[in-house]
Specification:
Layout (H helix, E strand, L loop, with lengths): L1 E7 L7 H14 L4 E7 L11 H4 L3 E2 L5 E2 L2 H9 L8 E3 H14 L9 H17 L12 E6 L9 H14 L4 E8 L2 E2 L4 E2 L2 H12 L6 E6 L5 H11 L6 E5 L7 H7 L2 H8 L12 H12 L3 E8 L9 H13 L3 E8 L11 H12 L3 E4 L8 H13 L4 E4 L1 H13 L7 E2 L9 E5 L13 E9 L5 H5 L5 E8 L1 E3 L4 H6 L2 E6 L6 E6 L5 E4 L14 H10 L3 H10 L31 E3 L2 E3 L1
Helix pairs in contact: 1-3, 1-9, 4-5, 5-6, 12-18, 14-15, 18-19
């Protein structure tokens, strides 16, 4: 097994996650099998109970793991399925050591950071690196490890010590360290400054790790004299210094690495020269080029609670981007704070008017998941506006629940209809607490991970978008469900529950049949969207917003999908100006067991 460690220096937020994902994609394009690990030094066991304002969204895996959003980047770039153990935290490591100590595994010895914590980290890395994540048997060839935080942080010192020991133990030819650092350009003099990176590398070496490759973040490409200076003071060959300058879209980062021969540097350090091919990235390049050429906008109103931080809805944004590129449209997000839509905000006329102006000017409305009652009434008003004005709507998790509540209030006349999450004493509980959860423990107690949804027929838009499959597997993260005792009344009034779980008691998909596109889902389809393979329901939303839904549904309905092994291989179909990619494939639609792919 070969290991590539990605660390960061100077400041956080440099893009270590995108760099690690891009390195993984580049190595995969060279014909290697790649897996990924993210190390988060915080003491939380996982990201499940952390506020989106703290670390962005919580990404959910097939096995129910609630992990850092960087694992979403890994899955999207590498098209793999990771496990909860691919996210290592200090909390997990310390808990595993405490459990061993309580069992007496250390036979009375004093338990210390070195060697017990550091050994546990190394054992965890080796164990997880051998787990196949690409659907094939056997371990991967390379494991890309991202160390969260910044070199010098006190909370990550035990990980740095463990990784120093690990690099010595596995050998220099099996370990490559890429250090991502900042080379700022001061506006006063317009000069690229190397001192921050010099100090960062000096700090890294003082802790026992020596970088093989420098990945320097800067607004522009590094000057040759700057690279020579970095090489001289950081003891890194000049051909191993990579510039990560600002690019037009995130898909260009792997191409940036390829163009600077980063793969050659990594393969040479890992002694893999002559054992791989040149990177094959023609389809990726075509997609990046297409993204830059798009100029027809599609405006999506994102009505949420955490609109002040885009990373709170990162996977939703990526899924919208995948779908908009597939529909040949430039994505424009209008952030609408849900609470600003509420009547209580009307007295603050400017924010109230701006919110409604954005909502009414959008081509489609999306209400993502969330927890807590802040902004709920605003989300209900957004769903009401979309339903009554025939605006394409997609509600995810809470977005589905508030759509059901709105329908019960407006159509059934149950003005006090609500969720027991927000009003435990409501007389008309449309959404109730699910039986398998816990009301007292918040961490890891929700309905989590991949669950199966069965379509109730093939006539619904969602069933057609998924290629008329009988069932799909999507990821969940929620505590509350649509009240099954109210389903019949809602359906009699015109609301269609087109997807349910195996018991028929849990509502998974809801649609308004006489609406151009009004869909709510209890699961989170954004977590399985991929570049070039957008989520079916996001594709449906953007297609409806751009007048392409009929064509997409027609092509989808015409397909027949084999269910063997949960996947199928179907000839691609064109719809509206589809382009031919460099590898000869069509940028059109095909279907597999996970849904509609583009």
């Amino acid at each position: 097994m070969k290991y590539v460690l990605v660390t960061g220096g100077v400041v956080s937020g440099l893009g270590k996650g995108v760099t690690a994902s891009s390195v993984g994609l580049l190595l995969k394009a060279c014909g290697l099998r790649v897996t990924s690990i993210k190390i988060d030094p915080y003491l939380n066991s996982d990201a499940g109970t952390m506020s989106p304002f703290e670390h962005g969204e919580v990404f959910v895996l097939d096995d129910g793991g609630e992990v850092d959003l960087d694992l979403g980047n890994y899955e999207r770039f590498l098209d793999i399925k990771l496990t909860r153990d691919n996210n290592i935290t200090s909390g997990k490591i310390y808990q595993s050591v405490f459990d061993k100590e309580r069992r007496g595994d250390y036979l009375g010895r004093t338990v210390q950071v070195v060697p017990h914590i550091t050994d546990a980290i190394q054992e965890w890395i080796e164990r997880v690196a051998s787990i196949p994540v690409d659907g094939k048997e056997g371990p991967a060839d390379v494991c890309v490890i991202e160390l969260g935080g910044t070199i010098g942080d006190i909370e990550s010192l035990h990980f740095i010590e463990a990784l120093g020991q690990f690099s010595y133990r596995v050998g220099a030819e099996n370990f490559c360290l890429i250090h991502v650092s900042l080379v700022p350009v001061l506006n006063v003099v317009g000069e690229q400054k190397t001192k921050p990176t010099q100090h960062s590398v000096r700090g890294l070496r003082s802790l026992g790790l020596t970088p093989n490759i420098l990945a320097c973040r800067s607004t522009t490409e590094l000057d040759i004299n700057v690279m020579e200076k970095l090489s001289r003071f950081c003891h890194v060959p000049i051909e191993y210094i990579i510039t990560l300058y600002d690019v037009s879209n995130i898909w260009r980062v792997p191409l940036l690495l390829r163009d600077q021969k980063a793969h050659d540097a990594i393969l040479k350090v890992l002694n893999l020269n002559g054992k791989t091919r040149e990177p094959v990235l023609e389809e990726w390049t075509s997609r990046a080029d297409l993204c830059d050429m798009l100029n027809k906008p599609v405006r999506i109103a994102m009505v949420g609670k955490y609109t002040g931080l885009a990373d709170s809805y990162l996977s939703v944004l990526k899924a919208l981007l995948h779908a908009s590129v597939a529909c040949h449209r430039q994505l424009c997000i209008d952030w609408v704070p849900a609470s600003d839509l509420e009547d209580a905000t009307a007295q603050e006329s400017e924010s109230y008017e701006n919110a409604w102006k954005l909502l009414k000017g959008a081509d489609a409305i999306l209400v993502p998941g969330g927890f807590g009652d802040r902004g709920v009434e605003g989300k209900i008003l957004a769903a009401k506006y979309a339903r009554e004005n025939r605006i394409p709507y997609l509600g995810i998790c809470l977005g589905m629940q508030i759509a059901v509540i709105e329908f019960a209030r407006s159509v059934l006349g149950l003005t006090n209809a609500n969720s027991t999450e927000f009003d435990p004493n409501t007389q008309n509980p449309c959404v109730i607490f699910m039986p398998e959860g816990s009301t007292t423990h918040m961490g890891g107690t929700m309905r989590l991970g991949s669950r199966r949804t069965y379509f109730q027929g093939t006539s619904s838009k969602s069933a057609k978008l998924y290629g008329n499959l009988s069932f799909i597997d999507e990821r969940h993260r929620h505590r509350y469900e649509v009240n099954p005792d109210m389903v019949q009344r809602l359906e009699d009034a015109g609301l269609s529950f087109t997807g349910k779980d195996e018991s028929g008691r849990r509502m998974e998909i809801v649609e308004v049949s006489n609406h151009p596109y009004f869909v709510g889902v209890q699961f989170h389809p954004e977590f399985k969207s991929r570049p070039g393979k957008p989520s079916a329901l996001f594709l449906g939303l953007v297609a409806a917003a751009t007048g392409q839904l009929d064509a997409v549904l027609k092509k989808s309905a015409a397909k027949t999908c084999s269910m063997s092994n949960g996947s199928s291989s179907v000839k691609a179909h064109l719809y509206e100006n589809a382009t031919k990619l460099a590898n000869g494939s069509l940028d059109g639609i095909y279907c597999n067991g996970n849904g509609l792919h583009v």
